[in-house]
Specification:
Distance between the termini: 24 Å
Strand content: under 5%
Radius of gyration: 17 Å
Number of strands: 0
Pfam families: DUF6435 (PF20027)
Order of helices and strands: HH
Number of helices: 2
InterPro entries: DUF6435 (IPR045493)
Shape: elongated
Protein name: Lacal_2735 family protein
Largest sheet: none
Keywords: Coiled coil
Length: 64
């Protein structure tokens, strides 16, 4: 059965992919903070860059 919005009847049971990405984003930021505390600025910069890429993906999904 299809509702007027075009989604299937069971569409509400599908997981939101942005939630999974947001958890990964938070994990990367935490790892970056720990790397910074340990004095590993290269790892901090790399992890922060990866987190930023995830944030942009999240934004793109939420706008779509």
């Amino acid at each position: 059965m299809v509702n007027p919005g075009g989604n299937t009847m069971f569409g509400l049971f599908k997981r939101d992919p942005s939630k999974r990405l947001f958890k990964a984003y938070e994990r990367k930021l935490t790892e970056a903070m720990e790397a910074s505390r340990n004095g590993d600025m290269r790892a901090n910069a790399r992890l922060t860059e990866e987190a930023e890429a995830l944030r942009q993906e999240i934004q793109a999904l939420r706008q779509a």
